[in-house]
């Protein structure tokens, strides 16, 4: 496979195309269940405070629209944590901080915090 990046031609061979990672339609047609998760309105601000990621598309609808979205959205790793916690509950897994043994202070956290 030859690549043409930003109008540059003759870029070195980048290897084979990655595997198809689309969600299988037969799996979509037969879900195992569903989960609803409440997300606080201020989650993007709270996550930005601890991550330092204050990218404007998380807070300003006009900036989000300028980059092709019709909505502001939370941070990727925050979304991943929100999405993976509910499915882990049926198998007895807890997210950090949901059990007494997991309640450890985070180094560098603001004591007045969130």
Would you kindly provide a written description of the structure presented here, covering whatever features stand out?
The protein is mostly helical and 114 residues long. It has a domain of 61 residues: Hotdog Thioesterase (Thiol Ester Dehydrase, Chain A, Roll). The protein contains four helices and two strands; from the N terminus they run ββαααα.
Share of β-strand residues: 5-15%
Instruction: Say what the CATH topology of the domain at 37-97 is.
Output: Thiol Ester Dehydrase, Chain A
Top-tier CATH class of the domain at 37-97? Alpha Beta
Structural Rg:
20 Å
Q: CATH superfamily assignment of the domain at 37-97?
A: Hotdog Thioesterase
Poorly predicted residue ranges:
1-5, 100-114
Written as H for each helix and E for each strand, in order along the chain, the element string is: EEHHHH
The biggest beta sheet reads: 2 strands, antiparallel
Lateral arrangement of strands in the main beta sheet:
1-2
Shape: extended
**What's the total count of β strands?**
2
Which structural class matches the secondary elements? Answer: mainly alpha
Mean pLDDT: 74
Oligomeric status of the shown chains? single chain
Residues in helix, %: 25-40%
The tally of helices reads 4
Q: What is the terminal-to-terminal distance?
A: 49 Å
CATH architecture of the domain at 37-97: Roll
């Amino acid at each position: 496979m030859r690549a043409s990046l930003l109008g540059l031609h003759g870029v070195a061979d980048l290897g084979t195309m990655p595997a198809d990672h689309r969600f299988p339609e037969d799996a979509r047609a037969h879900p195992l269940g569903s989960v609803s998760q409440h997300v606080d309105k201020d989650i993007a601000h709270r996550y930005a405070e601890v991550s330092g990621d204050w990218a404007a598309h998380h807070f300003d609808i006009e900036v989000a629209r300028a980059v092709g979205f019709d909505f502001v959205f939370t941070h990727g790793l925050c979304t991943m944590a929100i999405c993976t916690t509910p499915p882990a509950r049926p198998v007895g897994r807890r997210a950090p901080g949901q059990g007494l043994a997991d309640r450890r202070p985070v180094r560098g956290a603001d004591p007045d915090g969130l």
